[in-house]
């Protein structure tokens, strides 16, 4: 039987036998290691040599010696057996969280909410290497640019799987110093006399939503500074530059320590922004992705 027709499983066993013979230095030693008879091991090596048409081992009453061809075959056998072990280990490890996990998160939310959790996650899953990138750009998860992306707001139609992690309400905030200097707005329309800090990405005209007597309405606002994230707007509001409307998570610390106060809460429409983890789904989600998404959902919710 030539090499092309011999079953792959038989060839793998033959490689393992040949390597064992060399490592043990004898057919009998290899036989003991493999639980076979010395004659079975010897016949296997004979068949390998016959199939290849070269001598791999020089036999004497005292020792076995590798030929040059035998040395090359041994190196190839060890490499093939190692690759086979690696492949089987990777399949066996599919249920065990391990490997590199590429995570993309918005800059502010990632820095304030996701990064502080990574130490605990690393302690729980020491075999996972978290590779996190904080960016406000939309990363193409479907194209393999990340394993998991944390996204805000409505999700575009896609083949990705989405898992809700939580939600954040919007709040209008100002610093006590700013309000002492320019006055506390009593009605939404009072904002026309204030410096309203805004986001610089444009989906629609820069307006802030409100509710009065059960009816929603929007108010156009203007200011002197715009930014691409709520954390920056919150910082500007905290140092008295103006008034900002941001996600509550981005100013949680400033609200807690009194550097910012919520205003116009009676007119807050209670709108929230959903937070999701998106990833490639299916029946065989890698354990590292499932573990991370479950962890975020439990901590952020």
Q: Could you walk me through the main structural features you see in this protein, from its secondary elements to its overall organization?
A:
The protein has 301 residues and is of the alpha/beta class. The protein folds into 2 domains: 8-94, Arc Repressor Mutant, subunit A, CATH 1.10.10.10; 98-301, D-Maltodextrin-Binding Protein, domain 2 (3-Layer(aba) Sandwich). It has 10 helices and 13 strands. It has helices at 8-24, 27-34, 38-52, 68-92, 107-114, 118-124, 176-182, 230-238, 252-256, 287-300; strands at 57-59, 64-66, 99-105, 128-134, 148-152, 161-174, 196-199, 207-212, 215-220, 226-227, 243-247, 261-262, 272-279. Helix 1 (8-24) crosses helix 4 and helix 2 crosses helix 3. The longest helix is centred in the N-terminal third of the chain and has 25 residues, at 68-92. It starts with 7 loop residues before the first helix and ends with a helix. Mean pLDDT is 89; it is low at 1-5.
CATH top level of the largest domain is: Alpha Beta
- Element order: H for helix, E for strand: HHHEEHEHHEEEHEEEEHEHEEH
Q: Roughly what is the average pLDDT, rounded to an integer? A: 89
- Number of H- or I-type helical stretches: 10
If classified by CATH, what would the architecture of the largest domain be? 3-Layer(aba) Sandwich
Query: Pairing-aware structural class of the strands and helices?
Result: alpha/beta
Q: How many E strands?
A: 13
Largest sheet geometry:
9 strands, mixed
Q: Provide the number of structural domains.
A: 2
Backbone shape: rod-shaped
Low-confidence stretches: 1-5
What CATH calls the topology of the largest domain is D-Maltodextrin-Binding Protein, domain 2
Helix content: 25-40%
Rounded to the nearest angstrom, the distance between the terminal CA atoms is 63 Å
Q: How large is the radius of gyration?
A: 33 Å
Query: Which range does the strand content fall in?
Result: 15-25%
